[in-house]
Amino acid sequence: MEVFAVPGLPEIEAGDDVAALIDEQAALRDGDVVCVASTIVSKAEGRAYDLADFEAGHRARAIARRLEGISGDEKDPRFAQAVLEESDELVMTAPFLLTVTRFGHITVNAGIDRSNVPDADLLLLPEDPTASAEAIRQGLSADVSVVVTDTSGRPFRHGQQAVALGWAGMYANRDWRGERDRDGRELGVTVQSVVDELASTANLVTGEGDGGTPVAVVREWEFGDHDGHDLLFRDLESDFVRQALRQWSY
Amino acid sequence: MEVFAVPGLPEIEAGDDVAALIDEQAALRDGDVVCVASTIVSKAEGRAYDLADFEAGHRARAIARRLEGISGDEKDPRFAQAVLEESDELVMTAPFLLTVTRFGHITVNAGIDRSNVPDADLLLLPEDPTASAEAIRQGLSADVSVVVTDTSGRPFRHGQQAVALGWAGMYANRDWRGERDRDGRELGVTVQSVVDELASTANLVTGEGDGGTPVAVVREWEFGDHDGHDLLFRDLESDFVRQALRQWSY
Ligand SMILES: Nc1nc2c(ncn2[C@@H]2O[C@H](COP(=O)(O)OP(=O)(O)O)[C@@H](O)[C@H]2O)c(=O)[nH]1
Ligand SMILES: Nc1nc2c(ncn2[C@@H]2O[C@H](COP(=O)(O)OP(=O)(O)O)[C@@H](O)[C@H]2O)c(=O)[nH]1
Ligand SMILES: [Mn+2]
Ligand SMILES: [Mn+2]
Ligand SMILES: [Mn+2]
Ligand SMILES: [Mn+2]
User: Could you give the residue ranges of the DSSP H alpha helices within B29-159?
Assistant: First the structure.
């Protein structure tokens, strides 16, 4: 399989047609997986805001005060307000804000970015990244899959890694249930999250900085002859870590 | 960048020289990243065991009884014993065993596998995967990096994904601290776990089943001009999820 960053994309602005811009710069082929950093999807969808756009309520002010006390750094309650408005649930409020976004993804600060956002203070994640992926897919000239990605921290391990927020034209996971290992035993690993693995792959060539390469193409990768399904974000009932964090306090 | 599975590897047995076998099948080049599934590292290092090799103590029997009660399936206390012996700490004992391996990785059942292990009941993870990676690297004819990988579950998200257990010839993480985004602001994302992203990339072509492809090569990927560091597994103090899980009970 081959992986390359799409060169020559401009600074994306609200209303831009991301699919058309990608099509101009890359000779896509049927079967490619096009991985798009959520940052440009958000910009195109007009998700850049200023802090002044958020009016901090009681809860946001209390959260910001607490975080300020812990870190010793000034915390803007309007940022906490933006996180609250993007979230369905607060999983942790200290020593940082970990929340469930409205589309089910668990990440710090609801994934709100302050890097690579000119002329605005904040960039919110796309409202519905799977719908965004589908729209980009429909706009591209080849029959491809699309994965909308974001860089995110994770428990247990230092550092961040790209994950999938939304996807179209493919299943999120390869389901190996019912398949066999080399000795004919049923497999222990049953569900491989290929959209997350594709997001990580793309991030190796897009990077986090000023590279200007928010899109990567994975070519000649095959989902293969496996079952698939689209369940990526755990619900509360099957997520023991979320349950534990809800009861925990810093 | 290019990613391909190394074909033609035999069933690996205790004592096999994994590096020599890889060298025979792949024309490696300087700068390649060679990702090796822990399963064959373990086999080569003689980490296959039978349940009969473990004598279940009190604690293992209690754990197995509890898990049996929860799931309704028979649980062998000798398996619980093997997990205990491979672990420094139990993070959760129910509804499944989540532990910290002796080398610091947090995963279910200390990563003990029951798939792709002929002639034995269990395959333990390598004792020191970074030492294994270094030994393989030394044995290869080109100047490459080596990542020893395993498929592992993760909180918040369904399914499994490959991660790095050990690495050699490269840093675990790209450290972006001090670097700037497109607008000259200091970056929000500071540490990119490239070894985990490489492991995920490799897993897209190796798979989980009877493919017989435990090794993948990532070619023409560049770490680039960034700082690096080798801290991958969080310690307890910086791991709030682990702290919360320790206090939680099912
Ligand atoms: N050409 C172009 N590149 C961008 C733009 N915004 C971000 N990037 C690049 O996209 C890549 C990913 O950016 P990042 O901020 O990490 O995105 P995220 O992971 O989705 O939050 C980096 O190489 C950035 O330089 C943009 O508007 N235009
Ligand atoms: N040639 C060969 N392939 C193997 C062997 N053991 C496992 N595999 C293959 O290696 C890949 C990864 O196997 P898996 O059990 O998922 O490894 P893990 O992720 O390290 O636990 C699959 O394609 C297996 O078929 C072996 O001894 N020889
Ligand atoms: Mn982001
Ligand atoms: Mn990023
Ligand atoms: Mn394994
Ligand atoms: Mn695997």
Answer: 38-44, 58-71, 77-85, 129-139
Q: What digits encode the pLDDT tens for the residues B89-141?
A: 999 999 999 999 999 999 999 999 987 777 889 999 999 999 999 999 999 99
Contact (CB<8Å) B204/A212: no
Which alpha helices (DSSP H) does B13-91 contain, by range?
18-25, 38-44, 58-71, 77-85
- How remote is the CA of residue A180 from the centroid of ligand 6, in Å? 13
A30-72 pLDDT, tens per residue? 999 999 999 999 999 999 999 999 999 999 999 999 999 999 9
Q: Using CA atoms, how far apart are residues A78 and A50, in angstroms rounded to an integer?
A: 9
Q: What is the DSSP letter of B229?
A: E
Q: Per the domain annotation, does B38 fall within a domain?
A: yes
Residue numbers in B near A156 (CB within 8 A): 106, 155, 233-234, 239, 241-242
Residues framing ligand 2 (Cβ under 6 A): A 182, 189; B 9, 11-12, 37-40, 43, 113, 115-116, 150-151, 206-214
Q: Give me A111's structure tokens.
A: 């994934």
Query: Residues of A annotated in the binding site, as ranges?
Result: 9-12, 38-39, 43, 113, 116, 150-151, 206-213
* Number of inter-chain CB pairs under 8 A, A vs B: 237
The yes/no answer to whether this complex scores an ipTM above 0.95 is: yes
* Tokens standing for residue A165: 């927020």
Q: Which ligand is nearest to the CA of B42?
A: 2
Residue B241 lies in a domain: no
Q: What is the CATH number of the domain that holds B193?
A: 3.30.1330.100
Q: Which atom of ligand 1 is nearest to the CA of A149?
A: 20
Q: Which domain holds residue B210?
A: 1-47+126-234
Residue B39 lies in a domain: yes
Ligand 2 test: best mutation among B39, B122, B148, most atoms within 8 Å of CB? B39
In a domain, B43, yes or no: yes
- Count how many domains chain B has: 1
Residue A100 CB-half CA count within 13 A = 19
Q: What is residue A171's three-state secondary structure?
A: coil
Rounded to 5 degrees, what angle do the CA atoms B38, B43, B46 make? 125
